[in-house]
Specification:
Number of domains: 1
Shape: globular
Order of helices and strands: HEHEHEEEHHHEEEHEE
Number of helices: 7
Strand order of the largest sheet: 4-5-6-8-7
Largest sheet: 5 strands, mixed
């Protein structure tokens, strides 16, 4: 309702009226068989129906807003990175939406380019390698682990690679180029995966970790996740100021 200016105060409605892009950094659906005991927590246990339900929600977003979507490890596709665009045979209903732009994971895109302005380079990475580094890098683990996605993102930027250790993620080797190398410095670095909302800056790169729309599951509690659901970062592209809107407690 907020994105259609149907709820919120006047300032919040004004922000909604100015939205040009919505970035979805993976895991459009919860998937099926992703972790032990997941079936008992699912309301929709058919992957096709999950994507159809997601499409119904995305369809309510005004068509002038571009939806830029990359996949994640819960989506119905290979886990090995780079992940291609969402498979059409599973997510056909989402592909049919006129304002959807599908991209790979990871991906670097440019928004706002004009003849007088170079635009903003936005790096998308769902964040599957985070689990490995949170478990194995002492400086990240001791300073908060899953509660500090900013440390994780800074760690990857410093190494100019999204999975700089062998075994940190499943990947498909390419003899010509490494698709996980951060070959150019982005303006924005967007991730997700750990369901923790975070905004920070490292050497003029705005780092944003997205939230989620799911409360804590038994599996997340077991592995030490502390999700912050229903929080949406809003970027002012004129000032690069980021605010977080909370849609739930």
């Amino acid at each position: 309702k907020w994105i259609n200016c149907q709820t919120g105060n006047e300032k919040q409605k004004e922000i909604a009226s100015k939205v040009k892009y919505i970035f979805i950094v993976g895991d459009l659906v919860d998937g099926v068989g992703i972790y032990p005991g997941q079936d008992s927590e699912l309301l929709i246990k058919d992957i096709y129906q999950q994507y159809n339900e997601c499409a119904k929600l995305l369809k309510q977003i005004p068509s002038h807003i571009k939806l830029i979507i990359c996949p994640g490890n819960h989506d119905a596709m290979r886990i090995a990175e780079p992940q291609p665009e969402l498979y059409k045979d599973f997510a056909a209903a989402i592909w049919e939406l006129p304002n959807v732009i599908m991209i790979s994971n990871p991906a670097m895109i440019n928004i706002g380019f004009t003849k007088d302005f170079p635009g903003f380079d936005v790096l998308f990475y769902h964040g599957f390698s985070f689990d490995y580094f949170i478990a194995n890098v002492e400086s990240i683990r001791n300073q908060g682990g899953y509660d500090r996605p900013d440390l994780m993102m800074k760690f990857l930027l410093q190494r100019r690679h999204l999975a700089p250790t062998h075994k940190s993620t499943l990947y498909i080797p390419d003899v010509k180029r490494d698709p996980l190398v951060i070959s150019s410095v982005p303006d924005f670095f967007l991730t997700g995966h750990i369901h923790k909302s975070s905004v920070s800056n490292y050497r003029n790169v705005t780092m944003i970790c997205g939230s989620c729309w799911q409360s804590k599951t038994a599996f997340q509690e077991k592995v030490g996740h502390h999700p912050e659901p229903c929080r949406v970062p809003i970027i002012n592209l004129q000032t690069r100021e980021v605010k977080i809107l909370k849609f739930g407690e």
